[in-house]
């Protein structure tokens, strides 16, 4: 599909793309770039790329497709560094979890004739780095593309085919809409997970100070299967990546957080007043949402990932 693909940032997502590009033979050559010497060394040792560079301008030279796989806060500075080296007609895309900030940060540094089409594979794990990636990460997962209104239709289609060949289902929407949807489906859940795990961590010290009943850290770990465990998995996600997500999607996240706080207060009131009917009504409604996600095949579990790796993917 491409003579040369350049991957800027070779962590979980970049290395997964490298593996998928190799396994589907989507490029003649893959070049990589990473700010981290350790990631560069690991990617080279794993044979993920044909050439690894520290300088992004060297990595993008002659590339037909450039995929930025670094945290969203780095996109602008990266485009400034490599913009002049991008060949005319090349596609510049990214995988960032926020889309509204990407085009404004990158477009000023790219020449006319370079196609900037931001994207976001809605696929991931809590692990980071080149060793954490795997070729099947995008299998049956959505990839959202947010082309600007004047984007070349054939180029968008080519990028869509790239993702589809790696196993994704592609949807096209505006960057603003993407950021609103992801604020509630991804960003707010991560914020809640970070909060709840930190609250549990604080408990031990606080109870000790009050000389009351202690909840020890070992108890939190021991009995984590009661729901806490799922939050700890999400709260183990990369701190830099998520710092950038909240800074870049401030408006939509604050809007969803406001709505969430109102709903949480209503629930608090129902518990205080012993309003079981209200609680049951809500929990029944939310169970239906989970069933919908399972029916849509988007309830991916680690077991499903393992099965995919073993080449025996079943419907999840
Ligand atoms: P990751 O595993 O931490 O990999 C990111 C890599 O980029 C790291 O090696 C990092 O080095 C490097 N990097 C940082 N700044 C750079 C720069 N200026 N130039 C070159 N390399 C740079 O992160 P990831 O999970 O792959 O996430 C990458 C992107 O994918 C983010 O934009 C994120 O929003 C998006 N995304 C993530 C997920 C997910 O579940 N993880 C899902 C969908 C999309 P250092 O470690 O030294 O900083």
Q: Which terms summarize this structure?
A:
Rossmann fold; 6-phosphogluconate dehydrogenase C-terminal fold; six-stranded parallel beta sheet; three-stranded mixed beta sheet; globular; alpha/beta; single chain; 316 residues; 51% helix
The SSE order reads: EHEHEHEHEHEEEHEHHHHHHH
Q: Would you tell me which CATH topology of the largest domain applies?
A: Rossmann fold
Give the total of domains: 2
Strand order of the largest sheet: 3-2-1-4-5-6
The overall strand count is: 9
Radius of gyration: 22 Å
Mean of all residue-level pLDDT scores: 90
CATH architecture of the largest domain: 3-Layer(aba) Sandwich
> How is the biggest beta sheet arranged?
6 strands, parallel
**What share of residues is helical?**
40-55%
CATH uppermost class of the largest domain: Alpha Beta
Number of helices: 13
Give every kind of bound small molecule, once each.
NADP nicotinamide-adenine-dinucleotide phosphate
- Seen as an oligomer or otherwise, the chain set is single chain
Strand content: 5-15%
Structural class: alpha/beta
CA-CA gap between termini: 30 Å
- The poorly predicted ranges are 311-316
């Amino acid at each position: 599909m491409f003579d040369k693909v350049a991957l800027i940032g070779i962590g979980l997502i970049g290395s997964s793309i490298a593996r998928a590009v190799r396994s589907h033979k989507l490029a003649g050559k893959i070049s990589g770039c990473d700010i981290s010497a350790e990631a560069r060394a690991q990617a080279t040792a794993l044979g993920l790329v044909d050439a690894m560079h520290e300088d992004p301008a060297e990595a993008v030279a002659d590339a037909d497709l450039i995929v930025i796989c670094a945290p969203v806060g780095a996109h602008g500075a990266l485009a400034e560094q490599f913009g002049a080296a991008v060949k005319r007609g090349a596609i510049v895309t990214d995988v960032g979890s926020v889309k509204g900030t990407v085009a404004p940060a990158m477009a000023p540094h790219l020449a006319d004739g370079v196609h900037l089409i931001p994207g976001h594979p809605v696929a991931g794990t809590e692990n980071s780095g080149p060793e954490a990636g795997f070729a099947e990460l995008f299998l049956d997962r959505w990839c959202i593309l947010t082309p600007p209104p004047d984007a070349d239709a054939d180029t968008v289609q080519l990028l869509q085919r790239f993702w589809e060949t790696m196993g994704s289902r592609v949807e096209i929407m505006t960057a603003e809409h993407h950021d609103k949807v992801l604020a509630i489906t991804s960003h707010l859940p991560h914020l809640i997970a970070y909060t709840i795990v930190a609250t549990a961590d604080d408990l031990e010290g606080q109870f000790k100070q009050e000389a009351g009943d202690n909840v020890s850290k070992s108890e939190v770990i021991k009995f984590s299967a009661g729901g806490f465990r799922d939050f700890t998995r999400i709260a183990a996600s990369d701190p830099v990546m998520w710092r950038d997500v909240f800074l870049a999607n401030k408006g939509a996240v604050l809007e969803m957080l406001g709505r969430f706080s109102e709903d949480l207060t209503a629930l608090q009131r129902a518990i205080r007043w012993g309003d079981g009917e209200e609680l049951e009504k809500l929990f029944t409604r939310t169970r239906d949402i989970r069933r919908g996600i399972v029916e849509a095949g988007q309830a991916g579990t680690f077991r499903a990932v393992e099965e995919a790796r073993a080449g025996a993917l079943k419907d999840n």
